[in-house]
Fold this sequence. Notes:
Blueprint: E1 2-6, E2 9-13, H1 34-79, H2 90-101, H3 110-137, H4 148-177, H5 197-208, H6 217-222, H7 224-244, H8 251-280, H9 283-287, H10 292-303, H11 312-342
Helix pairs in contact: 1-3, 1-11, 3-4, 4-7, 7-8, 8-10, 8-11
Amino acid sequence: MLSISFRGLSFKLLLNSIHTPLCLCTNCSIRRPPSVEGSMALRDDQWRNIIETCSGLSAGAISTVLLYPLDLIKTHYQIHEHTSRPYRNIGHALFSIVQEQQYRGLFRGMSPALYGSTVAWGLYMYLYHHAKSRYARYAENGTIKHSYQYFLSAMEAGILCVPVTNPLFLIKIRMQVQTALNTKKGSPGRVLPYKNFSNAFQRIVKEEGIAALYKGVVPALFLTSHGAFKFLAYEVLKKSYQQNVQSELPIVPTLAIGAVSQVFASTVTYPYQVVKARLQQGGIRASRYTGTWDCFFKIQRNEGYRGFYKGLSANLLKVIPSGAIIFAAYEQLHKMLTKLVFES
C-alpha cells in the first residue's frame, strides 16, 4: 500500500503484490495483467491529469514572476499610440515608466497576471493533454502520427480556456496601463483607478457591465493560434531531437527548443496581440475603436503595418526566456511528479 499526500488530500494506491513488471508509458506495448488493468486505468488517467495541471500551474507562475517587467513594457508599447511623448526604444520605455511611476510601476498589475498565467497554463495543459490523448487513442500504435494533430489539440485547449482567462488578462492590462491621476503640483496626491485585482473586477462589472470583462475576446480567440503554433513547433522539434539525438530530453535542449518555439509563434501572431491590447486598455483611448475590425483598419491606416509590430522587440526579449523557462519548468516538474507518483 502506497499513500501519497497532495495538498491535504490523501490518495492511496493499492499494488496488490504485483510481480509482473509494469510500464506506465501511454505508448508502451507492455500490458498490465487483466485483473489489475481495469481497476488501475482510470486511476492512472486521473493522476496524469493532476500531473499535467500542476506542472502547467507551476511553470506559468515561475515564468510570470521572473519576467513580469518585460511583459509590462511590451503592453505599454502596444498601446502607446497618438501620445505627445512616444517611446523611442525599450530603454526609453523603461526609463519613462520608472520616472513616472517609480520602480513599483514595473510590477503594476502583477497579481492578475499571476492569477491569469497560473490558471491559464494549468487549465491549458490539462486540456491539451486530454485532446492529445484522444487523438492518440484513434491511432494504430497509440501515438500521434501527424503534426497537425498537435496544432488542433492546442487550438482546442486554447479556445476552451478563453472564457475563463479573458477577464483575468483584461484586468491585468487595465492595471498595467492605468496612469496616475492628479499629477499636477499642489494636488493632494496620486489616485489610482484600481486598488487591486478584486477592486478592479468589482468596478469594471459595476461601471461597465459584466460584458466588459470580455472585451477583446475575438482577438483572444484568434490568439489561440499562438499556442497552437507554439506547441506544434515544440512537439515537432522535441520529437526530432528524441529521434535523432537521444530519447531523454535534458534541460539545455528543452530551453533551446522552448525559446525557438515561442519566437516562432509570437512573431506570427503578434498583430493579434496588439489589437487585443488596444481593445482591452480601457479609458478614452480604447473608446476610439468600435470593435476588432475597426481597430485593425485604424491601426493600418494611421500607423501602417509597422503599427502591428509595436513592442515586438520588447516582446521577443520577454518570450525568448519565457518560452525557455515555461517548457523547461514544465518538463522538469512533469518528470519529477511522474516519478514521485508512478515509480515511488
